[in-house]
Structures are given as C-alpha cells and as structure tokens.
Specification:
Blueprint lengths: L14 E2 L2 E3 L5 H10 L4 H12 L14 H10 E2 L4 E7 L5 E6 L5 E9 L7 E5 L3 E3 L14 E4 L2 H15 L7 E4 L9 H12 L11 E5 L3 H10 L3 E5 L5 H7 L8 H10 L8 E7 L7 H10 L5 E7 L13 H12 L5 E3 L17 H5 L4
Parallel strand pairs: 2-3, 7-10, 10-11, 11-12, 12-13, 13-14, 14-15
Antiparallel strand pairs: 1-2, 4-5, 5-6, 6-7, 8-9
Helix pairs in contact: 1-2, 4-5, 9-10
The structure holds S-adenosyl-L-homocysteine (SAH).
C-alpha cells in the first residue's frame, strides 16, 4: 500500500463559560495558542506540564509563569476537570469511576489491575470516548442510550490523569484501552488530540505500544488513525459471516465485512504488532465450531489475534453466555489451527464494570459506595 499522508485533525477550541479550555489542546496546539495571543511559545510548554504532569488546575499555582500572564490566563482560559460522582470497588481489584461532566452528563472509566501479569504488572484503564453511542449494536447496553455527544479531548485525557492521581504514584497506569462508552473512531479528531497528550513525555507519558483503540470498524477512520498515530487497533468483529454480523452490528450495512477485513489486511501495522479482533461469544448465535472454522478463513492474510469475550449477561437482554467448556473448545479449535487466540477474563462484574455493562451511569449513581 502506498503510504498515505498523515492525517492531521482539525483544531477546535473548547470554551467553557466563554473561556478557552487549555486541556483540549495537545502540546503543539497549546504552544500555538500562546503564540497567537502574543505570548512566548515556551509558556505553552510550561503550562502543559503543569496541567498534565502535576495535575494543577489553578493558574496561580504555576509559579514559573509571570504574574501578569497568570492574570491574563485567569481572565481568558480555564483548566477543565471531571467532577467525581463516585467510585465502586470490585472484590477483584477493579474500580469503576463515575464522572460528571460540566454539562451534567455522566461517563465512566474502569481501572483493571493485573498485578500477576507475566513479566510485569499491568494496570489498564478502560476509557470512554462519547456520552452514549450511535452504533446501536444489539447486544450492547451503551447502545441503548443513543449518542448524546462526543467527549472533548480534555474529557477523554482527564479520565487518565484523574484516575492516576487517585491511584497514587506507586501504582501507575500502564495500559489504556479505548473500550469504555462510545465509539472512539466516531470522535476521531478529539480522540487523536487526547492520545497525543497521553503519549507526550511532557504529558501523561504513556507508550503507543500500550494504547489500544477499539472500533466497530469505521473503515475510513481506521485508516486515518493509523496514519496519524502508531497505536494498537482492536476491531469488534463479533460474527463469522456477513449475515450474522448484520444481525447484531448495524454498521455492517455501511462497511461490509469484506471492506473491513480488506482494510485490516492493508493497514500499516507495525512489525511487532497484530490487529486484535474482539469476538463476543453469544450462546447459540456465534459459538459453534462452524463459526470457528469460518473465523479462521476470515483471518487469512491478516496479522491478527482473536480475543474471545464470553457475553456478560444482563437483565436487559435475552442473550446467554456460552459454557466455559464451549469457550475453551472454540479457543482450542482456533489455536490448534495456528490462530492466535485468547479469552478475556471477566473483571468487575459485581459492580457492572464488565464489557458492555457501561452506560447505566445515572442509575448506578445512587447506589455507589
Ligand atoms: N465501540 C467500540 C468500543 C467499545 S469496546 C467497539 O465496539 O469496539 C466494548 C467491547 O465490549 C466491544 O468489543 C463490544 O463488542 C463488547 N461488548 C459489548 N457488550 C458486551 C457484553 N454484554 N458482553 C461482552 N462484551 C460486550
């Protein structure tokens, strides 16, 4: 494939009470904003560090910024913050955070520690990208909300900063999965800006190898994302044929499986990386050995690994999770034929923090501990 020119998202300025939210810029954008206001570029750099490395929200705490500049910033700018609306702790160490945005919307982030991960402890944060979701996958609870709005870059990155602060310096977040509420690639520009802040060593200082963006398969946005940032991509496939996928994921009408998998074959995936395909297993729907056989054919020519997610049951859906044996057999079938395949352990189920259980934020707000 010919390398495409890198995708550069449009810069949008987010205002709050008529003031510019400085956290909605990546570092370069913030520096430009300072310059366009007749200030020195390096002031942008300094403010960026105060906000993202020190978590400062008050300009007056920025002691290396001249008083007159601070006064001007107080007048024209603001540093956004998510209001904590509670947290729930699971008995497996998972924590679900509920945030209230400035407009009163609620979003969730889920912290999933795996201190025994082979090699090195893994502490993953599952981050939301939208309030609600427009994709309407039939099995997913977030879809029931419909799309309320996109999150701004600061609302996305603040989830990471604020959970990090809550955990303390000795338990740093190591991995980010954009697998919370929303379809991240439906909010591409803001996603890219927020990830730049996550990757920036003067910002949240995370590695691109440790950031995974999960998507229903918005084909053009997948290409744009990969041309902009070298992060990992996960595709929610969830079916082994076009007809089956159409039943549960309406986006298939827009981008066929052929189109989606063709794109995956051509994405400039780094040598050491594979595209993850998430496959939510639903009993009697997509969990037969015929499904497994079809899945193997679909994966031909793609540097892939499959992540089986046994369906998390909930009262709002008449969908069953396959037995543990069925999941194991399915995995074994794939692995024994040379396909990389893992099973996602369900975490945080007792606090409704598991995959597909986010989005009941308002209702759970009253029951938080
Ligand atoms: N919109 C993106 C990001 C959300 S990720 C995407 O779809 O990829 C959430 C993951 O949880 C998706 O892979 C989705 O298929 C899966 N999921 C949704 N509901 C689920 C449920 N009840 N049980 C298990 N997985 C579920």
């Amino acid at each position: 494939m010919t390398p495409e020119s890198p995708y550069i998202p449009r810069r949008k300025t987010y205002a709050s009470n008529g003031k510019v939210d400085l956290k909605s810029f990546d570092r370069e954008g913030l520096q430009e904003w300072f310059v366009s206001n007749g200030e020195k570029k390096f002031r942008g750099h300094q403010v960026f560090k105060w906000m993202w490395q020190r978590g400062v929200t008050d300009f007056d705490a920025m002691t290396n910024i001249p008083k007159s500049t601070r006064a001007w910033l107080n007048e024209t700018a603001t540093i956004s913050w998510l209001e904590s609306a509670g947290a729930q702790h699971s008995n497996d160490g998972t924590r679900k955070y509920l945030w209230e945005c400035e407009d009163g919307s609620h979003i969730e982030s889920v912290f999933i520690p795996d201190e025994n991960h082979p090699g090195k402890a893994r502490r993953t944060l599952c981050v939301s990208s939208q309030v609600g979701c427009a994709m309407a996958c039939t099995f997913c609870l977030t879809g029931d909300l419909g799309l309320k709005r996109n999150l701004s870059p600061s609302e996305i990155a603040n989830q990471v900063l604020q959970v990090s602060q809550d955990l303390g310096e000795d338990r740093p977040i190591t991995n980010i999965v954009m697998m919370g509420m929303g379809e991240p690639l439906h909010n591409l520009d803001n996603l890219i800006h927020s990830i730049r802040t996550m990757l920036d060593d003067e910002g949240l200082n995370l590695s691109h190898r440790k950031i995974t963006v999960s998507t229903v398969g918005l084909v053009p946005a997948m290409k744009k994302l990969q041309s902009a940032l070298p992060v990992n991509i996960a595709v929610s496939l969830n079916a082994s044929s076009e007809a089956q996928r159409l039943e549960v994921m309406p986006i298939t009408k827009r981008y066929s499986m052929d189109d989606l998998l063709g794109t995956c074959r051509e994405l400039p995936v780094h040598k050491s990386k594979r595209i993850t395909f998430e496959y939510v297993m639903m009993a009697g729907f997509n969990d037969s050995m015929e499904d497994a056989a079809r899945l193997i054919r679909l994966m031909r020519g793609i540097k892939s690994k499959i992540n089986l997610i046994p369906y998390n049951e909930n009262p709002a859906r008449d969908i069953r999770r396959p037995s543990a044996k069925r999941v194991k057999d399915f995995q074994h079938y794939l692995v024994s034929r040379g396909v990389h395949c893992s099973v996602r352990t369900t975490r945080g189920k007792d606090i409704s923090a598991a995959c597909g259980q986010l989005g009941k934020a308002k209702q759970t707000a009253t029951t938080l501990v």
